[in-house]
Automatic annotation (TrEMBL):
This is Uncharacterized protein. The lineage of its organism: Bacteria, Thermotogati, Synergistota, Synergistia, Synergistales.
Length: 301
């Protein structure tokens, strides 16, 4: 059995969730949401560094496997304190919440250009680098600056333990291990060397996610409609309206391969790319019940 908790994070700094570039001028575009895999990685790092001294790559792998077995993470979406901005492929095109993609980008997305400087004080050739990100602040309809949050769900297996330490859920939806809130402060996504990805647990900001957790041995959910809220592995027999993309991931090791090699260099292990339906795609499959995988992707039942 799995316990569901709604979790909100406040963005302390801009957030960059990288994937393959597709825009002419933006070298490093961002996703407009946070995949569950990023939450798994950030929480694995946080727990490992809290519980282990002089951490090694094997420590991350060991803790990561335990986290994978005992937790599930939804994808996390931009939340302004009132609305959660889920993507949806509609007759009017791609929307986020009830607004158009262009309006969403104007309100929440920014970019930063940087370049390397050589010994003469001038820009190095071919060093121009533009990073797209989710801003940590936005202007509301009255022109007031507000904090940007991201909102999602975490599921914890009944009687979950990390090592010999019990996982406890507090009244504020904190996830406590040995009295330490492991989701209190996380670094999500890429470009952390520029200060990106710093998020803070925000117990005051949570609202109900549009899903229902089904009591079962596996982590099963029922989505309120036919628009998927995470990646779903492509199946040519499914009728759909939306998009398909090639999905992969990077890390110290590939969690999909049991007994795979572990590297001390972050991002050196790249998982095998596979085709998935993108979040927001309308799935006409006769069911809205799915199993949530360790990385937040959905498995059709």
């Amino acid at each position: 059995m799995w316990r569901e908790i709604a979790v909100s994070f406040k963005l302390k700094s801009p957030l960059h969730i990288g994937y393959m570039p597709f825009k002419g001028s933006v070298i490093s575009p961002t996703r407009y949401y946070v995949p569950g895999r990023n939450l798994w990685g950030a929480m694995t790092k946080r727990i490992t560094e809290q519980l282990c001294k002089n951490t090694t790559a094997d420590d991350y792998k060991k803790i990561g496997t335990v986290v994978k077995d005992n937790f599930r993470f939804s994808y996390f979406y931009v939340y302004d304190g009132i609305n959660i901005y889920f993507p949806r492929y509609t007759e009017q095109g791609l929307k986020y919440g009830n607004i158009s993609r262009s309006e969403f980008e104007h309100r929440f997305i920014g970019s930063q250009i940087s370049t390397a400087i050589d010994s003469t004080g001038t820009a190095k050739n071919e060093s121009l680098h533009e990073i797209e990100f989710i801003n940590n602040k936005f202007k509301d309809t009255n022109g007031n600056m507000k904090d940007v949050r991201i909102m999602g769900c975490v599921w914890i297996k009944e009687n979950a333990e990390i090592g010999d330490k019990k996982v406890i859920i507090s009244d504020k939806a904190e996830i406590l291990i040995d009295g330490f809130n492991v989701i209190g402060e996380l670094i999500l996504g890429g470009e952390s060397k520029y200060g990106f990805g710093h998020v803070l647990f925000d117990p005051s900001g949570s609202v109900k996610f549009p899903i229902e957790t089904v009591k079962a041995e596996e982590c099963k959910i029922k989505i309120n409609d036919n628009y998927i809220i995470a990646h779903l592995k492509y199946d040519k027999t499914i009728k759909f309206k939306g998009d398909i993309e090639l999905l992969t991931g990077r890390g110290y090791y590939d969690p999909k391969i049991s007994g795979g090699e572990t590297s001390n260099k972050p991002g050196s292990a790249i998982s095998k790319p596979e085709f998935y339906f993108s979040p927001g795609t309308y799935i006409d499959s006769g069911t809205t019940t799915y199993v949530v995988n360790w990385d937040g992707t959905l498995i059709r039942i």
